[in-house]
Automatic annotation (TrEMBL):
<dbReference type="Pfam" id="PF03992">
    <property type="entry name" value="ABM"/>
</dbReference>
<dbReference type="InterPro" id="IPR007138">
    <property type="entry name" value="ABM_dom"/>
</dbReference>
<protein>
    <recommendedName>
        <fullName>ABM domain-containing protein</fullName>
    </recommendedName>
</protein>
<dbReference type="InterPro" id="IPR052936">
    <property type="entry name" value="Jasmonate_Hydroxylase-like"/>
</dbReference>
<feature type="domain" description="ABM">
    <location>
        <begin position="26"/>
        <end position="86"/>
    </location>
</feature>
<dbReference type="InterPro" id="IPR011008">
    <property type="entry name" value="Dimeric_a/b-barrel"/>
</dbReference>
Length: 112
């Protein structure tokens, strides 16, 4: 899991924000997530992701892509499609997906 924010990239670029509440059945979820990370990292135009889950169970994952074409490759990947189907059947009580274009981006790193 990432311990640093994803770097600021030169806009415009695309973000997909996946917000979810999981079920109590997480059987196979970690393995599937590892495989999904392998796949998405191989997509040209994938920039990175950030993910967090609070103690109440709300999770947010933000994935960044250079353009909508790269995001479409991810969305249409057959293994990702199967994972989404499995997620709806077993792993998620609910989720939302928001896709947007980043117009401004900057960052800060302390230089102590």
């Amino acid at each position: 899991m990432t311990t640093q924010p994803v770097a600021a990239f030169e806009p415009p670029y695309v973000m997909a924000v996946f917000t979810s509440i999981r079920t109590s059945d997480e059987t196979g979820l970690d393995e599937r997530n590892d495989r999904m990370e392998e796949i998405v990292q191989a997509i040209p135009g994938y920039l990175g992701y950030e993910s967090a889950r609070n103690p109440g169970g709300l999770g947010i994952t933000v994935a960044y892509f250079r353009d909508h074409e790269a995001l479409t490759v991810w969305r249409e990947n057959m293994e990702h499609q199967a994972a989404m189907k499995k997620g709806r059947a077993d792993w998620y009580e609910s989720y939302t997906l928001h896709v947007g274009t980043v117009e401004r981006s900057h960052g800060f790193v302390r230089n102590d």
